[in-house]
What we know:
The protein is built from no helices and 28 strands. By secondary structure, it is an all-beta fold.
Amino acid sequence: MSKYIGFAGTYTRQTSEGIYRFELDTVQGALKNCELATKVSNPTYLSIAENNQFLYSVAQEENLGGIYAYKVNQESSALTKIDAQLTDGAPPCHVNVNGNKLVTSNYHQGTVGIFHVNEEQGTVSKGSFVTHTGNGPHKRQEKPHVHYAGFSPDENYIFACDLGTDEVVTYKVEDKELHRIATLKVKAGSGPRHLTFHPNGEYAYLLTELSSEVVVLAYDKEKGTFEEKQYIKTIPDSFTETNDASAIQISSDGRFVYTGNRGHNSVAIFQVNEQTLELSFIEHVSSNGEWPRDFVLDPSESFLVVSNQHTENIVLFRRDIESGKLTETGSEIDVPEVVCLKFLSC
């Protein structure tokens, strides 16, 4: 394909009106045609069903927070709201859909939610929630702050990263509820944020926001547990200002890991060792903006798109599939208060 459709989630505190849609032209190496896809309050994170039929968004309505479900028009990529599940309090910060299950992570409430999805209709059942307890030594760890929940490669487990308690919690879904079965305690004050798995399903890479590190984890798929193998910094030792690591992605061939740095304003590139699955640093590339909140590989993985929240722009980089390195294309578009980026798969 020569064109891919992307969606951008945003804050709507100032000028943004909701979710935006844009195009990536892979022939010209350019981002194009950014427009408002739908109006919604604070759709900061998005998740798209594997069949491209439905998009799920974090959402807020006055004192209620939760998720909206949208039908994606397969010709125009227009979004039509089909369902909502909202509860009292702050909205979640992350949503992740996989088959007939959807999970949410609530930073402010310290909760993980599990919802069941009708895969044909895209509708979502009322959620069931678990609340974390605990804290950590950092000033931002006064209570639990669940930042991410996602699925194991075999879909048997759900993992929640808690920035506030320095934990990665393993859950099993039984009778439509989450049951904790294991907890990994990582370095105190590190602040786990996001997790991604190696394609082999035997290793995972955990990004810590507060300490700006990637933790390489060996994964036991029978028990749903992790073992720490390596810690590696995402910023230079010479950088002494505040940095909040943001997003982490791995290439589908399992050879390269990418992380975002808010403060250092860069994307860090790492190579994966074929034998040990540990990481070695390759280089930093400027995000060409301030506060790179998220980034995403396009479906061809020949490009990487970065969202810079404070400068309200998304920037396109060309990716060398063999070396993993990124080069500037000079293409960028404005998206107000941008946070999250997702592409429809091909």
